[in-house]
Amino acid sequence: MNNRKVRVRFAPSPTGPLHIGGLRTALFNYLFAKNNRGDFILRIEDTDQKRLVPGAEEYIVESLNWCGMTPDEGPGFGGDCGPYRQSERREIYKQYAGMLLDSGNAYLAFDTPEEIEHLRKESESKGEVFSYGINTRNELNNSLRLSPAETEEKISRGDSYVIRFRMPENEDITEEDIIRGKVTFNTTKSLDDKVLFKSDGMPTYHLANVVDDHLMEITHVIRGEEWLSSLPLHILLYRAFGWEGTRPQFAHLPLILKPHGKGKLSKRDGEKMGFPVFPLEWKDPETGEFYHGYREDGYFPEAVINLLALLGWNPGTEQEFFSLDELTQLFSLDRVVKSGSRFDPDKARWFNKHYFQKKTAEELAVLFNPILEEKGIRQTDGKAEKVIAEIKERCEFVSDLWEHSSYFFVAPDSYDLRTIKKHWKEDTSGKLSEIAGLLSGLEKWEAEAVKQQFSDFINARQWSFGSVMSPLRLCLVGENKGPDIFRICELLGKEETIRRIRKGIETIILT
Ligand code: GLU
To answer: What is the pLDDT of residues 359-381, one digit of tens each?
Structure first.
């Protein structure tokens, strides 16, 4: 067992978009695999045909790609253990269900859904809970009670049936979960005879999951806490198949909790509280409901990964920022905690700001250019890069760039009234006209040089700086904001600067 190559799988069901909790499960699997030089496998668990949602599988793959977690094996990724879509493996499951029937670990149950429903209601009326299992199976319509001849007859008549697992009586199943430590379940107290194979010819999750983990040589099952209750059945299935010697180790990840109060973060919380809980945006093909995504809301995948990594895992140091590579180096399941982690949307913004600031102006320009183009602004002389370098520290998202830089590309068509009232005096127009005159005579159009000439000019006239700086800014920007005014002049260029000053003088006098 110890010298087997580490192989883990991320096994989502394509029943809708991948929730941020599912993405965290994928991330922890990916990190564990890469930390151990192992394989990260994507397996699509689509045996519940009624719950399939069109587009969900593509969504899952796109989300993994966006985060840079490319599977080593999976549908569309190749690998020797395929097919990796469970709906394409029906024959395999049928064969394995047959093996359990042969060994007496499973049986055929002919009870119709209506009969089961009736039994359920009957128990309910007595204040009890019906369970198909140790205490009831011998009175029900199955191959344990019927004679072999009766069973045969039903099969040949074409009666529909399911295959159920025969749960052993009153046994304590104990397992050492990597995260939770020792967990024990009593078969009689907490387990019923679960359906392994359905009448529609499809396996249930339990059978398909265990058979595939075995055939795909999975060494570690890392999944959400909600699957902990399935663990004893899975362990018993490994035993029934005689695969105990090679069965995987289990690690059940802690829940992700709502930002405030108790309870699991749900897919509706995001829309209610105003932050995405999905990596990519999603429009439900049936209901038309729309859900925001981190990608479309302008987050970088680095920020989402960093945020998710710290939901349940900690490095044991003060370090907070981690790249995917660093996480791969550091990750271990020993540092994953048992208790739930609160989701903090403010932290997501904070991480995004960090990664935004780390990007170079050139990298950001690549993302900003499409926004400019949409506004009809084409710029080829690298102006976007230079503008971004001036204003980037004021931004958290690429979408903030325009708000802080529009005046570099489009002249203001209105001027902030408060600034006018405060800074535009009787003599302002005259002073600015003189300044426009000075600027038009300048040869060297570069921030430092302009500043020098400007200062000399103002000092020579004994004007206060304050009396011209804000009006000048008002003409160039439209309001009293922005970076160093001489950098703005440089980036606007000489002609545009003078043009804006003149337009300001004309317009603001008229106001
Ligand atoms: N198909 C299950 C899911 O949707 C997989 C659970 C597991 O990893 O065993 O999460």
So the answer is: 999 999 999 999 999 999 987 78
